[in-house]
Amino acid sequence: MVKTPCCESMGLKKGPWTPEEDQILISHIQQYGHGNWRALPKQAGLLRCGKSCRLRWINYLRPDIKRGRFSKEEEETIVKLHAVLGNRWASIATRLPGRTDNEIKNFWHTHLKKRIERSQLQLGYEASSAGTLMDMPQVVVDATSSTVKGKLLANDSLLSRKYPPAAGLGFYGTASSDISGDIIGNNSRSVIGDEMEFWYNMFMNSHHKM
Questions:
Q1: CA nearest to 96, candidates 86, 104, 88
Q2: Which residue among 61, 122, 140, 162 sits deepest, i.e. has the most Cβ atoms within 10 Å of its Cβ?
């Protein structure tokens, strides 16, 4: 079954309303009301669609329309109602006297929605930053505490045992203090061994010659 169109599209005027058309619509509704929007254009003598007349009256021409900027209270009401009702603009408009559903919808998409999204992004960034700081380990070192002192002393004693001071080298001075005992102990031919072997060979050779 094909739905019957609300009005005959042939010959009807479209586009912006003129001040003369507005005045004709206002005068007719003030005198006869708007019980039947489909029949109203013909009764008023307007070459307009019934839907166009209804939207023009509701959104622009009715006397109780509230003009101007939305107040802070109206903004809060829209946000709260939208959280419950979603995009049911007509239902939201019933809670805001003088505001039209079309005006509320436009205000939501152009201002409130973007403002809420920015606030949510800012809150999410602050929460993530706070969580990162809380997760970082807080290390506080007290150099005067007995525990730290004990660890430092223990480390010093281990280092002294691992790297003892080098022994003297006799005729040719002493070894450098940064040479470790491990290096001296592990070398197959140390400086001390070479010197003793030299004098031992000298002594043995002189003894045989005599």
A1: 104
A2: 61
Distance CA 47, CA 12 (A): 5
- Tokens, residue 206: 């002189």
Q: Going by C-beta distance under 8 Å and a sequence separation of 6 or more, which residues neighbour residue 52? A: 14
Q: What's the distance, CA 56 to chain centroid?
A: 43
Task: Report the distance separating Cα 40 and Cα 26, nearest Å.
Answer: 12
Per CATH, 19-61 and 72-133 having the same topology is answered yes
The class (CATH top level) of 19-61 is mainly alpha
pLDDT in tens, 84-115: 999 999 999 999 999 999 999 999 999 999 98
Residues 72-133, CATH architecture? Orthogonal Bundle (1.10)
**Which tens digits make up the pLDDT trace of 34-58?**
889 999 999 999 999 999 999 999 8
Instruction: Give the rounded distance of the alpha carbon of 133 from its chain centre.
Output: 15
Place of tokens 């010659």: 209
Residue 101 token pair:
């559903």
